[in-house]
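User: Please run a holo structure prediction.
Assistant: Happy to. Please share the sequence and the ligand.
User: Here you go; the ligand is iron/sulfur cluster.
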Amino acid sequence: MEQGNLRSQRRRRTLDRRLREAKLLLRGAIDTDHPVMAHIIPIRRCNLSCTYCNEYDTYSKPVPLETLRHRLELLGNLRTGVITLSGGEPLLHPDLDNVIRSIRKNAILAGLITNGYLLTADRVKRLNDAGLDYLQISIDNVMPDDVSKKSLKVLDKKLQILAEYADFHVNINSVLGGGIRNPEDALVVGKRAMQLGFTSTVGIIHDGDGQLRPLADREREVFLEMKKFEKKHFSRVNGFQTKIANGEASDWRCRAGSRYLYVCEDGLVHYCSQQRGFPAKPLEDYTVEDIRREYLTQKSCAPFCTVSCVHQIAYFDSFRGKQTRTVEPEPREQVVTIKKAARV
Ligand code: SF4
Ligand code: SF4
């Protein structure tokens, strides 16, 4: 496609996406009985093995397309606004384009979180054709090391391909904490993202329960330096993250299980990737009553939680819906151990 046609196609797609986002925002603001966002896992397997990650394995098979389609329909029935495909590495799923088409068919915005390794010009064009709305790549460092291979050196070519061909919104997330060696790398990654016309966010790596690991001094300095660029749209960081950077508890209402759902490869609804095991109810049986209950449930892990997508969704309801019920999720390792023991 010629450069001029490509630009006008991009403009049309952006306008269309913004209109659908506006509807989602309006619905999210006036009605609390539906999830604003769900993450769904089409495959748990990953082609990388970042040492801080507890969300992948090396052997799982892809969830069959028909099973995923059924889950997407169920999320559509719950009137979910955005569905983001996560993993593992979702690009390893052989039917991913059809999964994205099914999301869009249910009038839902479609997002994808990927490590970017499998992106090619052709793959990006197929994602355009399937109707993808958002893509996020997390880049952990400038040079690959033993903690993470998601480095700018390896992925810069992929970013250039995205800049040239992607019709969808691209966000580059950089991270601090969790053993990432050079905190300054986050600045380099953020600047490169801006240069290529993408948005940029910074996240803080959490421990196995989604809880805060305090940042070291230099990490905190870099974090605050990135925050200074916020007004220039260099990066989007929220007030809660500033508290996290300072090692302080955050006072907020986690709406996981209600406004945000995490649907694992087995089709169970969990609070989030870091609290798998709660409430662990089949999506098939999840109803608006569950959404209402969890909306009013205070989670004991909230004060030091670093799961940023759930924080962001919580802004919709920060001024309403006082939580009257409490739950204390067990540490994730304990839940996994109990489940493994139950299988034996
Ligand atoms: S690429 Fe993502 S899913 Fe895969 S191991 Fe790294 S952090 Fe985990
Ligand atoms: S506060 Fe909510 S998002 Fe954070 S770890 Fe707990 S359940 Fe997950």
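DSSP finds eleven helices and eleven strands in the chain.
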